[in-house]
Design a protein that fits this description.
The chain is an alpha/beta fold. The chain is built from twelve helices and eight strands. The chain has three domains: 55 residues, no CATH class; 102 residues, 3-Layer(aba) Sandwich (Rossmann fold); 152 residues, Rossmann fold. The longest helix is centred in the N-terminal third of the chain and has 25 residues. The mean pLDDT is 97.
Length: 330
């Protein structure tokens, strides 16, 4: 399961996609009436035309990059395992129902479906909503098979190895710093997901202090992934940092990627590498927000070179890691 995409770059399709996405109570966690006023009355009418233009800059002949890459991943995984593989999206098509039905068409005797939300880190607006949506469809349609979910894999050794090796070729002499840019989330989402009720964001070093809350803490998991990958690659702490992109409104996790890109050249960071580990598939947020607009911002601020590392996509090591994640559930 991946995030999803509009059906085309037409404004009407962006309106439909943004409406479904932003009306999700786990994305904008406001009461329904307030959420509807914000989304339908303000955000979608304002953002749909701009988003349509942004999608046009990355759209391919085959369609949305996210959908195309996810299908490529499906094909690559199918070659690694002897079980039928289908894809589904949280928003848009193909839906979980289409995915379930495709699997049953391939093998009507299926007794269990293993769902893999393609989010390494837990967040209520990504992993959690994908799981709950798939469960909703599963229960509504009364499928007879068992439904099992692969948990967030931010600490999985094979995943971390694949991510590190995806970075390694970019670590030549022509870089000053590597920025790990994670998708942002509102700070209140961390607090809502805190099963202890008194740990997340209660102290500056909360993510470093052991706690059961870390099982559902996006910030802790992002920090863990970054630290482990930089250890594998022997990158010193002075040569990397973390930021959060794609914010929508106030109260989101800091530092903000767009702000840091404008600040870094004045701090002596002139040659930057940037990677987006929250995404396993390149999409609008990586190809347009980071690779295009991010580069423009950094270079205009005085940067000399800027390279975005592609997401794992259908990287061989990542496909092997994914096959292992699935096999662990069998």
């Amino acid at each position: 399961m991946n995030l999803g995409s509009p059906g085309s770059t037409a404004v009407k399709d962006l309106r439909a996609y943004l409406d479904e996405f932003l009306m999700d109570k786990r994305v904008i966690d406001k009461p329904w009436l307030l959420r509807a006023l914000l989304v339908k009355g303000i955000i979608v009418p304002f953002r749909a035309p701009k988003s349509a233009e942004a999608y046009k800059t990355v759209w391919t002949d085959e369609g949305s990059p996210l959908i195309v890459i996810t299908r490529q991943l499906q094909d690559a995984l199918q070659k690694k395992i002897n079980k039928p593989v289908a894809i589904a999206m949280r928003y848009g098509n193909p839906s979980p129902e289409e995915g379930f039905d495709e699997l049953l068409q391939k093998d009507a005797s299926i007794t269990e479906v293993i769902a893999v939300p393609l989010y390494p880190h837990y967040a209520m607006s990504s992993y959690e909503t994908a799981v709950e949506y798939a469960k909703e469809i599963y229960q509504k349609k009364k499928y007879s098979f068992k439904l099992t979910f692969v948990p967030p894999f931010y600490d999985d050794a094979a995943y971390l190895h694949a991510l590190a090796e995806n970075i390694r070729p970019f670590l030549d002499a022509s870089w000053d710093h590597i920025l790990f840019s994670y998708h942002g989330v509102p700070a209140r989402h961390l607090i809502k997901s805190d099963i202890t009720g008194n740990h997340c964001l209660q102290s500056p070093d909360c993510c470093e202090v052991a706690s059961p809350a870390h099982e559902y803490c996006y910030r802790h998991q992002a920090i863990f992934t970054t630290k482990r990958v930089t250890e594998i690659l022997n990158i010193p702490e002075t040569k990397y940092s973390i930021s959060f992109q794609s914010r929508l409104g106030k109260g989101w996790l800091t530092p903000f990627t767009d702000v840091r890109l404008q600040q870094m050249p004045s701090e002596g960071i002139k040659k930057l590498i940037i990677i987006c580990p929250a995404f396993v598939s390149d999409c609008l947020e990586t190809l347009e927000e980071i690779a295009i607009r991010g580069k423009e911002s950094f270079m205009q601020a005085g940067g000399e070179s800027y390279r975005m590392i592609p997401c794992l996509n259908s990287n061989e090591l990542w496909v092997e890691a994914l096959a292992q994640l699935v096999s662990c559930q069998l």
